[in-house]
């Protein structure tokens, strides 16, 4: 599998620190049970656990999940890290207070994310926009993995939008960030 090979190459491809948007917004997230979708090597899942969340984290790569478990041990926290192909894995209903998704886009997963969220729960999401490709920044090269303008906002329009932005960050990547409440 391509992701296993990629994760085997380096210590931690994306580092061990959480996404800046998650760190900035952590205080407004309701405490409880969190799910980190497509968690990679677990940097965000571990951060959530360090903040007191009970964390489930999944990724399609066995290598990434193993590294996430190691990172949790290194940080003296527990996470439930498991392998799941989000193309086929059914998310459990009304289970999570927070669902985090960073730099992964699977549009048909959005309805399941909403169902998996408890009433009053929050989705925190950040990923690349088409502008990232247009400017030639590092990131996905396939347009289907990139958001159109306001697309993330529209995907979650039936939830209460708490925060939304689209911007070019540090002249390195074009992103959309969202926090939405059920």
UniProtKB/TrEMBL annotation:
Q: List the Gene Ontology MF annotations in alphabetical order.
A: transferase activity
Taken from the record, one Pfam family name reads: Methyltransf_25
Note the InterPro entries from the entry.
Answer: Methyltransf_25, SAM-dependent_MTases_sf
Q: Which UniProt keywords apply?
A: Transferase
The residue ranges of the Methyltransferase domain are 35-121
PANTHER family, per the entry: PUTATIVE (AFU_ORTHOLOGUE AFUA_2G14390)-RELATED, TRANS-ACONITATE 2-METHYLTRANSFERASE-RELATED
Annotated protein name in UniProt: Methyltransferase domain-containing protein
Q: What is the protein's species of origin?
A: Candidatus Brocadia fulgida
